[in-house]
Automatic annotation (TrEMBL):
<comment type="subunit">
    <text>Homodimer.</text>
</comment>
<keyword id="KW-0028">Amino-acid biosynthesis</keyword>
<dbReference type="Pfam" id="PF00180">
    <property type="entry name" value="Iso_dh"/>
</dbReference>
<feature type="site" description="Important for catalysis">
    <location>
        <position position="142"/>
    </location>
</feature>
<dbReference type="GO" id="GO:0009098">
    <property type="term" value="P:L-leucine biosynthetic process"/>
</dbReference>
<keyword id="KW-0464">Manganese</keyword>
<feature type="binding site">
    <location>
        <position position="221"/>
    </location>
    <ligand>
        <name>substrate</name>
    </ligand>
</feature>
<comment type="similarity">
    <text>Belongs to the isocitrate and isopropylmalate dehydrogenases family. LeuB type 1 subfamily.</text>
</comment>
<keyword id="KW-0479">Metal-binding</keyword>
<feature type="binding site">
    <location>
        <position position="221"/>
    </location>
    <ligand>
        <name>Mg(2+)</name>
    </ligand>
</feature>
<keyword id="KW-0520">NAD</keyword>
<comment type="function">
    <text>Catalyzes the oxidation of 3-carboxy-2-hydroxy-4-methylpentanoate (3-isopropylmalate) to 3-carboxy-4-methyl-2-oxopentanoate. The product decarboxylates to 4-methyl-2 oxopentanoate.</text>
</comment>
<keyword id="KW-0460">Magnesium</keyword>
<feature type="binding site">
    <location>
        <position position="245"/>
    </location>
    <ligand>
        <name>Mg(2+)</name>
    </ligand>
</feature>
<dbReference type="GO" id="GO:0005829">
    <property type="term" value="C:cytosol"/>
</dbReference>
<dbReference type="GO" id="GO:0000287">
    <property type="term" value="F:magnesium ion binding"/>
</dbReference>
<keyword id="KW-0963">Cytoplasm</keyword>
Length: 372
C-alpha cells in the first residue's frame, strides 16, 4: 500500500519520539513491501518561533492532502508560564483537529502483562484492564466562545454541544463496544451540566439501536475514582472533550507510564495519530522519553488502513521489548536504554520478525497483540 504521511514532530520530545515511530513504519514498509512517504511540516512552538503561527497554512495544506498525519507533541514552558500570551502552541493542535474534522479521539488502555509490577496500583486491582476511551475532540469547552473582561478580572469558556456532535461519536463508540465486550459507559456530569444532560439524552436514544450493548452512566468524579479502584469494569468509555483529556492521563498510569499510551483521531476524511502525552520539556534532548506511545500510535495508523498483520507485528515487537526490559527510565530507573535504543530494538524485531512471526504468541508469553 502507498501512504503519504504528514509528519508533524512539534516541540520538546515530540521530534525524538516521532522519529522512532517513523523508524518503526520504515521497518514495516521494508518487511511487508509497502511504500510510505513522510513529509515534515512545522507545528506548535517551533512554528511560532519560525513563522509566527502555530499552524502555518502550508502545514494545514500538507495535512489535508496527505492520507494521514503522524503527530509528535507540542508545547513549550515559555508559553505555559505566560498566561498573557495570545499566540500559543496548543492553538495549532486544536485548529488542526478542527480543520481536519477529527471528532473522535480513540485512546486504548491495556495492561502489558510484563509491566504489571511497574504500575503504581496493586496487581489484583489492574489485572484484566482493557478499555478504550472515545473522547469527543472538536467540541465542548475547548471550542466554545471565550471571554476575558477588559480589566482582565473576569473570564469564561463556553461548553457547547449539539446533538449532531454527540451522535456521530456515540455511533462510533457503540460500534466499538459491539465488537468488544459489549459495554459502553457514558462519563458525564449530568447532575450539574445542561450539556451533559444532552449527552445522556442523545446517547440513551442511540443506545436503543444497539441492543447488544449494555449502556451505563457514571458521573466524571465517580469515574475518576472507579478507574483506579476497579479499571477492569470498563470496556468502552464515551465522554466529552475535556473529561476525556483528564481521565485518559489518569488511565495511562494504570499500565505503568503515560509514555505507553497511543491515540488515533479520526473524522470523515482524515486521521491523525499521536501519543496522548505532551512535549515533556524536562526531557528534551536527553534521549530518555519513552517512544512506545508514539510507536503504538503508528500501529494504530496501520490498523486504521486495515494493515492488520502489520499493526500486530508492531505491537508484538513492542511487547517483546517490554518483556526483554529494553525500556526507557520511566519504566526502569536503572535502564541503560535510551529513546532511540528502544525504537531501534522494536524496528529490528519487525525486520527480523521470522523468529517470532507466526509463532503462537501465548507460548512465548506475549499475550494478545491487538491494540484496540
Ligand atoms: N498532544 C500534545 O501535543 C500535548 C499533550 C499534553 C500536553 N501538551 C503540552 O506539553 C507541555 C508539557 O505538559 P505537561 O508537562 O503537563 O504534560 P506531559 O505529558 O508533557 O508530561 C507530563 C509528565 O508525563 C511524563 N511523560 C510524558 N511523556 C512521557 C514519555 N514519552 N516518556 C516518559 N514519560 C513521559 C513525564 O513524567 C512528564 O513530567 C505543555 O506545553 C502542554 O500544553 C501537549
Ligand atoms: C495540548 C492539549 C491541547 C491537548 C488536549 O487537551 O487535547 C493534550 O492535552 C492532549 O491530550 O492531546
Ligand atoms: Mg491531554
Amino acid at each position: 500500500m502507498k501512504l503519504k504521511i504528514a509528519l508533524l514532530a512539534g516541540d520538546g520530545i515530540g521530534p525524538e519520539v516521532a522519529a522512532q515511530a517513523v523508524t518503526t513504519l520504515q521497518a514495516v514498509e521494508e518487511t511487508f513491501g509497502h511504500e510510505f512517504s513522510f513529509t515534515e511540516a512545522l507545528v506548535g512552538a517551533i512554528a511560532i518561533d519560525k513563522q509566527g503561527d502555530p499552524l502555518p497554512d502550508e502545514t494545514l495544506a500538507l495535512c489535508k492532502e496527505s492520507d494521514a498525519v503522524l503527530f509528535g507533541a507540542i508545547g513549550h514552558p515559555k508559553f505555559d508560564n505566560d498566561p498573557t500570551a495570545k499566540v500559543r502552541p496548543e492553538q495549532g493542535l486544536l485548529k488542526l483537529r478542527k480543520e481536519l474534522g477529527l471528532f473522535s479521539n480513540i485512546r486504548p488502555v491495556k495492561i502489558f502483562p510484563t509491566l504489571i509490577e511497574k504500575s503504581p496500583l496493586r496487581e489484583e486491582r489492574i489485572t484484566g484492564t482493557d478499555f478504550v476511551i472515545y473522547r469527543e475532540l472538536t467540541g465542548g469547552i475547548y471550542f466554545g466562545e471565550k471571554f476575558l473582561s477588559e480589566d482582565g478580572t473576569v473570564a469564561s469558556d463556553l461548553c457547547i454541544y449539539s446533538e449532531e456532535e454527540i451522535s456521530r461519536i456515540a455511533h462510533l463508540a457503540f460500534k466499538a463496544a459491539k465488537g468488544r465486550r459489549g459495554k459502553l459507559t457514558l462519563v458525564d456530569k449530568a447532575n450539574v451540566l445542561e450539556s451533559s444532560r444532552l449527552w445522556r439524552k442523545v446517547v440513551t436514544r442511540i443506545g436503543e439501536s444497539y441492543p447488544e450493548v449494555t449502556l451505563d452512566y457514571l458521573f466524571v468524579d465517580n469515574a475518576a475514582m472507579q478507574l483506579i479502584l476497579n479499571p477492569s469494569q470498563f470496556d468502552v468509555i464515551l465522554t466529552e472533550n475535556m473529561f476525556g483529556d483528564i481521565i485518559s492521563d489518569e488511565g495511562s498510569i494504570i499500565g505503568g507510564s503515560i509514555g505507553l499510551l497511543p491515540s488515533a483521531s479520526v473524522g470523515e476524511d482524515s486521521s491523525m495519530f499521536e501519543p496522548i502525552h505532551g512535549s515533556y520539556p524536562q526531557a528534551t534532548g536527553k534521549n530518555i522519553a519513552n517512544p512506545v506511545a508514539s510507536i503504538l500510535s503508528a500501529a494504530m495508523l496501520l490498523d486504521h488502513f486495515e494493515l492488520k498483520e502489520e499493526a500486530e507485528a508492531v505491537v508484538r515487537a513492542v511487547t517483546l521489548s517490554l518483556k526483554k526490559g529494553i525500556v526507557t527510565p520511566d519504566l526502569d530507573p536503572n535502564s541503560k536504554y535510551g529513546t532511540d535504543d528502544v525504537g531501534h530494538y522494536i524496528a529490528s524485531n519487525i525486520r527480523d520478525s521470522d523468529d517470532f512471526r507466526g509463532l503462537n504468541q501465548e507460548n512465548i508469553g506475549l499475550g494478545k497483540s491487538t491494540i484496540i
